[in-house]
Amino acid sequence: MIDIKIVDKYLEDLGNPDPKYWPAARYEIVKLGPEVTEFLIKFLKHKNSVMRGRVARILGEIGDKETVPFLIELLMTDKDSYVCSSAASALGEIKDSRAIDILIEKLSVKEPKVRKEAARALGALEDPVALEPLMKYYEKSSGEEKIWAIYALIKLGKSELVYLLEDNLKEEVLLAAITVAGHLNLSETVPLLLELLNISKDVRFRIEIIKSLAQTGNPVVKEKLEQYYEKCRGEERIWVIYALCKLGDRDRACVIMDVLERDVRKASAMALGETGHKDSCNVLLKTLKSDEGELRYRAVQALQKLGDINILDHLEQALSVESETYIKLAIEEAISCLKKGEA
Hints:
Layout: H1 4-14, H2 21-32, H3 37-41, H4 49-62, H5 68-77, H6 81-94, H7 100-105, H8 112-125, H9 131-140, H10 143-155, H11 162-169, H12 174-184, H13 190-199, H14 203-213, H15 219-229, H16 234-246, H17 253-260, H18 265-275, H19 281-287, H20 293-306, H21 312-321, H22 325-342
Helix pairs in contact: 1-2, 2-4, 2-22, 4-6, 5-6, 6-8, 8-10, 9-10, 10-11, 10-12, 11-12, 12-14, 13-14, 14-16, 15-16, 16-17, 16-18, 17-18, 18-20, 19-20, 20-22, 21-22
């Protein structure tokens, strides 16, 4: 039986203008699962549009198909673009075919963020009914919207449209195109990504390119990144090490462990979790004693991803002394996931 008073407290944090309260509240509510959805549905009519949007996204993460009619109604009737884009995103997460018609309809509204989320959701649903409307949407869209239209069309089986993504990699919407290439693991884009890595002057683009290249399993990419490693620094170098680990060079994780004790520590912690290198656990556990809350939080997330059940006692100890609520919640979630893995 769920204690509604506890849920009320999480919902109060959800509506707090201070953004630091929102992630912890979201994680805890999602963890409660479908048992709390009936209570959450009432908040889809809340007077605060931010609350309506956040609750919609949480319902999407919970994934209870019983909420689909309510999310459809929200998408149909709400006048706020953030709320509507959140409802579309949630319907994409749940992947229920009942949402197809309204998502197609929203491809033609005036708010770009709603159109974009509707396209992404239709891609996630992978229903061929959306193919023709998405083609029309693609033809009249531009910028980031066009990229997500291509993403949706490729998800619906139009793999020959990869060339469109390649064209856009050469244009102005680089970050979205690079991200999509990584999501779809498109080997055809590797030459372009490598070219962009060497010519782009924006470190954000370069890091996103490196993350995408890490998914390819391509030995040529590994060779190129080994060369690139010698000329990059800081956070970018950490992500190159991450990519090389993903591409088979497991010994590189030791370098990240060294850096974790010096600079760009948050990026190092994130990358260590992604490598799956369990030898990293000891240095991450030391990091749980850092005075920097955000670093402790990243370390907990990394330890959860590494999945080593031998660290449970250490996490229990860290939980007993942790003062920040959002980090406590992250530790509890990590402990729960590790115990499930042990079972």
